[in-house]
């Protein structure tokens, strides 16, 4: 199967393949939509098994970014860059070349950190483009913390909806977002079960937050009532769903569902799923408001994730449809409304590039892969009026799995 065949039928506006032989840089930029504004999305570095795997990841992630910013009602579209990590990659020089490539896009794509990208990588990118988030800026704040805060706002609504009074949260992955989330949950009285490929991180969570440590395989079967995937995507699948003990799934990872049908299965089993791009939007909300709208504070905007989660739950109950399908339809509708209202891509209001920015043109070879027009999608019905009678949520764990009783701590009530 060729790459061109793989992306046929996708709805992306632009897909670029970039390569620089001198530095070993190889990757893809997928821009899903520019209709509501410039595309925003992080750059990810992973040792993909093939070019096709890297491209597929970029396509899925960029589409998720469009849905994320649409639900958050931000004046932008979705994009994502992926770089293939390999032994021959001259990382420092490669990130500089990637920055030049982003600069060449002329503000159509604004990037920031994603999986596998370090603070040192971003320094190199920012040295050659002004279209990259500067996480060292005190005005911007820690994007990982903003993301974790948004996940908590979504999770507290899920806890209230499922009437979970003694939360036991299993966190898969303790990177920057996962560790921030662990702290927030601990401060709100949740018991924690954690797993990470880096045992030092797991031990740190055990020491600081009293977390129980399990292996990365055991985290799926851990006794808990909330499962929080905070590593890579695709972990909720036909293979893992039968092993889950949780009544709620809510985390920071992107593309958590391996296939759309996995969301249908969660709904059938009565497991409440917080759509990933709804729950983990805190970081992009802060970044977009800071760089595109020059806002000094985004706490109120991030807190509105709770309202959106509540709306999705209510619609899911009223229509007896999976929360994943509800969120997709909402995002599609909001995206199209925003695109029609804006009409054209506005210029990016970006912060000045760092001193020492290299002005020379990139040596990157860029290949453009044309995308066909998207197929039309139907919008969902509006939310039921406030106070309307609704069916009760389905009971989770119909098999009667008993959850281990843990010591109860005083915690902030879930509103």
Number of helices: 12
How much helical structure, as a percent, in the residues?
25-40%
**CATH fold-level label of the largest domain:** Rossmann fold
Oligomeric state of the chains in view? single chain
Structural class call reads alpha/beta
- CATH-defined superfamily of the largest domain: NAD(P)-binding Rossmann-like Domain
Assign the CATH architecture of the largest domain.
Answer: 3-Layer(aba) Sandwich
CATH class of the largest domain: Alpha Beta
Largest sheet: 7 strands, mixed
Which regions contain 5 or more consecutive residues with pLDDT less than 50? 1-6, 344-366, 368-415
Average pLDDT works out at 83
Radius of gyration: 21 Å
Form type = globular
Report the span from N to C terminus. Answer: 50 Å
Percent of residues in beta strands? 5-15%
Number of strands: 13
Number of domains as seen in the coordinates: 2
Order of helices and strands: HEEEEHEHEHHEHEHEEEHEHHHHE
């Amino acid at each position: 199967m060729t790459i061109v065949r793989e992306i046929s039928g996708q709805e992306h506006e632009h897909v670029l393949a970039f390569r620089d032989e001198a530095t070993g840089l190889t990757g893809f930029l997928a821009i899903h939509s520019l209709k509501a504004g410039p595309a925003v999305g992080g750059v990810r570095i992973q040792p993909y098994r093939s070019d096709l795997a890297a491209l597929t990841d970029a396509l899925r992630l960029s589409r998720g970014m469009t849905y994320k910013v649409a639900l958050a009602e931000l004046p932008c579209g979705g994009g994502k860059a992926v770089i293939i990590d390999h032994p021959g990659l001259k990382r420092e020089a490669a990130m500089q070349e990637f920055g030049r490539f982003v600069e060449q896009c002329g503000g159509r794509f604004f990037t920031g950190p994603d999986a596998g990208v370090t603070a040192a990588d971003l320094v190199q990118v920012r040295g050659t483009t002004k279209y990259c988030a500067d996480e060292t800026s005190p005005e911007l704040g820690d994007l990982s913390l903003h993301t974790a805060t948004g996940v908590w706002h979504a999770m507290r609504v899920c806890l209230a909806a499922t009437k979970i009074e003694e939360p036991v949260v299993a966190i898969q992955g303790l990177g920057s977002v996962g560790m921030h989330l662990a702290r927030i949950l601990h401060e709100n009285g949740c018991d924690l079960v954690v797993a990470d490929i880096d045992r030092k991180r797991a031990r740190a969570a055990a020491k600081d937050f009293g977390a129980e440590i399990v292996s990365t395989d055991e985290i799926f079967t851990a006794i808990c009532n909330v499962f929080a995937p905070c590593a890579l995507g695709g972990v909720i699948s036909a293979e893992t769903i039968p092993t889950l003990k949780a009544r709620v799934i809510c985390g920071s990872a992107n593309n958590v569902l391996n296939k759309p049908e996995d969301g249908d299965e969660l709904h059938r089993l009565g497991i409440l799923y917080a759509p990933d791009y709804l729950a983990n939007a805190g970081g992009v909300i802060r970044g977009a408001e800071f760089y595109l709208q020059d806002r000094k504070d985004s706490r109120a905007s991030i807190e509105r994730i709770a309202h959106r989660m509540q709306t999705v739950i209510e619609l899911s109950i009223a229509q007896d449809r999976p929360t994943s399908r509800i969120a997709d339809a909402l995002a599609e509708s909001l995206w199209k409304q925003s695109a029609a209202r804006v009409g054209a891509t506005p210029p990016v209001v970006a912060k000045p590039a760092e001193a020492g920015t290299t002005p020379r043109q990139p040596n990157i070879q860029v290949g453009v892969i044309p995308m066909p027009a998207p197929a039309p999608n139907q919008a969902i019905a509006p939310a039921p009026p406030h106070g309307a009678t609704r069916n009760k949520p389905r009971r989770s764990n119909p098999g009667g799995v008993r959850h281990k009783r843990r010591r109860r701590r005083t915690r902030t009530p879930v509103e």
